[in-house]
Automatic annotation (TrEMBL), chains A, B:
GO molecular function: orotidine-5'-phosphate decarboxylase activity
EC number: 4.1.1.23
Protein name, as recorded: Orotidine 5'-phosphate decarboxylase
Organism expressing this protein natively: Polaromonas vacuolata
SMART domains reported for this sequence: OMPdecase (SM00934)
GO annotation, biological process: 'de novo' pyrimidine nucleobase biosynthetic process; 'de novo' UMP biosynthetic process
Keywords tagged on the record: Decarboxylase, Lyase, Pyrimidine biosynthesis
Record keyword Lyase present: yes
Pfam families: OMPdecase
Pathway info: Pyrimidine metabolism; UMP biosynthesis via de novo pathway; UMP from orotate: step 2/2
């Protein structure tokens, strides 16, 4: 498929094309009024999967002819989606990788493509927005209307009114950052709060709020890093029914298995994200085949751990 | 100026146009190698101002013929910039208001316009990004390379390594959310940390980190809401030399004066943001004149408070 620079359409045609893509997304949403939670359960069942395929396109790592060509972001990601549509519980495009390359139009096309080839797989837009109510309202329009996402990731730092505008979109999901496993995750999330009953750690407090008073319409989930299974277990204890989005799992059986044991419960699903191990499984033209192999392998490890 | 839909260029021409706008921004940056801090001091001096003009374009509130027309976001914001270029210490576009309307191209044009008509006024891109290092790197490219911003706002929730990629851009500024005055600002920022020496509140801890160990190259500032002057004073005590970006001041003399007294010190500047009071000072064709009057008034109140 040709990129922007090479195409022959004039701008008026491009605008119509864009408007039409957006319209199609909305139409498909109307035809599929399932909530994010229902879509998640259905995709898990149908694809026998707890695997989330993260879409973090880096042109410098693209294979073959796509290498270093940002106009191929859509083509690259669409090939990954096509190769994993029957293996994924969710897709998670990371918006920064599109924004850095002025590729919002390619993200719009990718969202429409995912809806078209994998209508049963929910899409989580990883944006980690966090702003006051009136601005959050704009970000909610971006995520849910412009891009047609089924769920977003959010930073809870500015408090409940920075989260509530997303909850007005009934049926949409919102994953709050809770405990991240980057080195800086300890800086604040792991601090003990003297002024809250029981002196929980900050991430424990967030888990409680998300399971309880903040979860007005059952739309909330939590982002919990995979590095420390004991912390996943603690979050699961405090938030027994919330979906947990767990990034940071490679194809190593040990980590993945420990993650599943720590996080999966009968009433509480886990969505285990893998991005680079799948996207860049091969640097050659066979990248989509290699991505499928890697996704198959990771899915199998996760499923095996669930039945142990 | 015609919007996207109406133009007659083909897409190849559009790509060239975009690439050229981006190139021009970079060229202008190279011609103006001043650091954000130096630009801020110069703008304050030259425009005799502590006023930041916030650009939060809402088409539903646009005046006259622009009303409800998202293709007029650039025209509206450019008129505000033209009317206040000699009155502002900084401009602060809020990216959510552009993203909700697929108006990234208009934001690119606005950034180039600000650089052209007000080269002495630094531009703070209000994006409140907060993500792990590799993703933060993409957001830094978006803010500093794509849009050519002089500074960004960031959420510190994910810790130091979510901030450090921005600090690699020497000379650029980064304002960390510290104490926000929205209702949810209390939820976490005002919690006392049992596990940090002296049991500071979370926002106090952030202020200390930003003044001290996190401020590797003197690029950090803090975002502190205007609602509670006592808290601005406390932040200033802990961060005596950091620039404070203070949103939430209307044209009321009392608030603005209290804000200046609480935050302004010989070695520590304040950047007092006003958005809607200026942008929507009139709903008619005279909106730019009315915006200028409002900016003049607010600037005067701030300057008067500084000399009391």
């Amino acid at each position: 498929m040709s990129g922007h620079a090479g195409c022959r359409w004039n701008c008026a045609a491009l605008s119509i094309h864009r408007a039409s893509a957006s319209y199609n997304i909305r139409m498909m949403q109307n035809q599929n009024p399932a909530t994010f939670t229902a879509m998640l359960a259905k995709a898990q069942q149908q694809n026998q999967s707890m695997l989330c395929v993260g879409l973090d396109p880096e042109p410098t790592r693209f294979p073959g002819n796509f290498k270093n060509d940002p106009s191929k972001i859509f083509d690259f990601c669409a090939a990954i989606v096509d190769a994993t549509a029957d293996l994924a519980m969710a897709f998670k495009p990371q918006i920064a990788y599109f924004a850095a390359h002025r590729a919002e139009d390619q993200l719009e096309r990718l969202m429409a493509h995912m809806r078209s080839v994998a209508p049963q797989v929910p899409v989580i837009l990883d944006a980690k927005r966090g702003d006051i109510g009136s601005t959050a309202e704009q970000y909610a329009i971006e995520a849910f209307e412009r891009y047609g996402a089924d769920a977003v990731t959010l930073s809870p730092f500015m408090g409940f009114d920075s989260v509530s505008p997303y909850l007005k979109r009934h049926g949409k999901g919102a994953f709050l950052l809770c405990r991240t496993s980057n080195p800086g995750g300890d800086d604040f999330q792991n601090q003990r709060l003297a002024s809250v009953d029981g002196q929980p750690l900050l991430y424990e407090h967030i888990a409680r709020l998300a399971q309880g008073p903040w979860n007005l319409n059952g739309q909330l989930g939590l982002v919990v890093g995979a590095t420390y299974p004991a912390e996943i277990e603690r979050v699961r204890e405090l938030a027994p029914t919330l979906p947990l989005l767990i990034p940071g799992v490679g194809a190593q059986g040990g980590d993945a298995a420990a993650t599943v044991r720590a996080g999966l419960r009968a009433g509480g699903s886990i969505i285990v994200n893998s991005s680079r191990a799948i996207l860049y499984a091969s640097a050659d033209q066979d990248f989509a085949v290699a991505a499928r192999q890697e996704a198959l392998k990771t899915r199998a490890i996760l499923q095996a751990a669930a039945t142990q």
